[in-house]
Amino acid sequence: MREVGRSGGIKEAGCLPGSPWEFYDMTAVRVEKNNLEAQHSEVVKNMAAKWMDWAGRCNLRV
Q: In 1-62, which residue ranges form alpha helices assigned H by DSSP?
């Protein structure tokens, strides 16, 4: 399963279970080529928390 969160031109993606999130600026590069997670770890944590909250509200098993 692939989970995805978007905020504007920013895309966050991960594969379950327990794999790290990947972070892409889709306005700069339109393909998932350059994972920017290391440069934006706080933003990634924030987006991941929002996704997990949403998944919980939707009763998804994560």
A: 41-57
